[in-house]
């Protein structure tokens, strides 16, 4: 039973889910757990997400990325600096684009 009637897209997703669940067979001998695949230990840490995000921004602007977070300013100022560097400020030109 669903609390509300489903939209057409949701009905298709429910059918897909039921097919996946029906076709799967749980292994009772294994412990069920979450796995973080971003590091070799498969355990989540703030450092692992930092390294993952830093890797996404490595390249020509990696020095600019690193320096924008080392500025001795309020976090809102750091975020604004980063947004200016990444051309993410909501100027008229950017909003039009």
Quick summary:
The chain is mostly helical and 97 residues long.
How are the secondary structure elements laid out?
Elements: H1 8-23, H2 46-56, H3 62-70, H4 75-85, H5 92-96
Task: Report what the structure shows.
The chain is mainly α and 97 residues long. The chain has helices spanning 8-23, 46-56, 62-70, 75-85, 92-96. Among the domains are: 30-59, no CATH class; 61-97, no CATH class. α3 (62-70) packs antiparallel against α4.
- The tally of beta strands, per DSSP, is 0
Give average pLDDT, whole number. Answer: 80
Tell me the strand percentage band: under 5%
Oligomer: single chain
Low-confidence stretches: none
Biggest β-sheet strands, sense, barrel: none
H/E series: HHHHH
Tally of helical segments: 5
| Amino-to-carboxy terminus distance | 44 Å
- Global shape: flat
Counting helices, strands and paired strands, the structural category is: mainly alpha
Notable features of this structure?
97 residues, mainly alpha, flat
């Amino acid at each position: 039973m669903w609390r509300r009637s489903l939209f057409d897209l949701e009905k298709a997703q429910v059918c897909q889910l039921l097919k996946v669940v029906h076709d799967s067979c749980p292994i009772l001998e294994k412990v069920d757990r979450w796995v973080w695949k971003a590091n070799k230990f498969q355990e989540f840490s703030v450092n692992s997400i930092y390294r993952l995000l830093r890797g996404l921004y490595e390249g020509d602007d990696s020095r600019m990325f690193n320096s924008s977070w080392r500025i001795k300013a309020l976090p809102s100022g750091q975020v604004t600096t980063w947004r200016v560097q990444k051309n993410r400020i909501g100027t008229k030109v950017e909003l039009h684009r």
